[in-house]
Amino acid sequence: xxxxxxxxxxxxxxxxxxxxxxxxxxxxxxxxxxxxxxxxxxxxxxxxxxxxxxxxxxxxxxxxxxxxxxxxxxxxxxxxxxxxxxxxxxxxxxxxxxxxxxxxxxxxxxxxxxxxxxxxxxxxxxxxxxxxxxxxxxxxxxxxxxxxxxxxxxxxxxxxxxxxxxxxxxxxxxxxxxxxxxxxxxxxxxxxxxxxxxxxxxxxxxxxxxxxxxxxxxxxxxxxxxxxxxxxxxxxxxxxxxxxxxxxxxxxxxxxxxxxxxxxxxxxxxxxxxxxxxxxxxxx
Amino acid sequence: xxxxxxxxxxxxxxxxxxxxxxxxxxxxxxxxxxxxxxxxxxxxxxxxxxxxxxxxxxxxxxxxxxxxxxxxxxxxxxxxxxxxxxxxxxxxxxxxxxxxxxxxxxxxxxxxxxxxxxxxxxxxxxxxxxxxxxxxxxxxxxxxxxxxxxxxxxxxxxxxxxxxxxxxxxxxxxxxxxxxxxxxxxxxxxxxxxxxxxxxxxxx
Lengths: 284, 204
Fold this sequence. Notes:
The structure holds 2 protein chains of 2 kinds. Chain A is mainly alpha-helical.
């Protein structure tokens, strides 16, 4: 019988059930991100420069190599990642707030619903990167500009999901009955609907995170995001472009890989949490 | 004593196929009236119209000749056939009950409501247990008429008797009129003062 067991039920974690495994995955992934964030936050932005060790390939003392000013690329990458995480948090939280407000606005009456649907179609029809660049420039670039730009371009999907969800709850018998018991629309929205869509909002926020980080890096890379003196991954990548031809591959490879890993970690948390909070299984 | 009256009610979900035509019936607050009809004949639709869930019908629903105010607590309360659909799955039973009112202990006892049910989720209780909650929820002191749309169909005979006895006792004591809708003629024969046949009311 043992041979028929799937790989994830063997060895160290065999005693855990699916729920515990999901929680473990979320916990470990979250821990890694927290470590990256805190260590990056503790690093001084003004890294020491040492021209004696400039442009060194990865070694034991400098695992990610050094750049043209002799700065340790590992330290710069961690600092950049923690900045990315901050921007990711800001952007995804704001976009979720926008999405929630619009979804509830859509439930007021059919004109508001038509307006919100129109707004969704409008924003969905503009390429993200273009919208982000325009908003970022309009708000004077920098971290604030990027956060707002990403937030105002990423509410669309969550709004669409939440609007449908709210619409469905609104036609349920318990909402109709609540209305007959003399409860106001505002009370129903707060007490009946919000608890039911809270898990969706939560998962939605986490799943916007990877997009937010990637888009922050790409607009910064293109020069419409953070200013060059800030230690962002996008800045590191765009600077490294001029040294790639000289064979300094590590300048772009490791920061890019690290960014990808962080994005994947957030995605893993988001999807696992979604499994955990699925409305059908929430009470089990 | 009050009188709930429905006069010349007509309604259609689909313009080509009317479902209710010129239905009139009245119910006094010391009465229990039964309503019998075939499946799909429009009984539930009539219930929803009288309880104010459907508003785009033609005709009048009045209490003592006055339009019923549909804002705020509705004096005509509908009890649904499926209690599990009328409860927010993320609410504990205590909150479900409190949304309407906090019933006194003796009333909870007559309906056989156990205190440890109050801390459970709706998905953790059976249909009969949930139906007790939805009936008790409808018995708010502001309620003047109850429209019971097949409320005991999914219950076993013993529970049916228990629930109906408790409901009738409370309504007789508090001057609440009941319109009991069912397929079950034997049940209505026992509990009702008078029985109406939906076929005869509906002038289709």
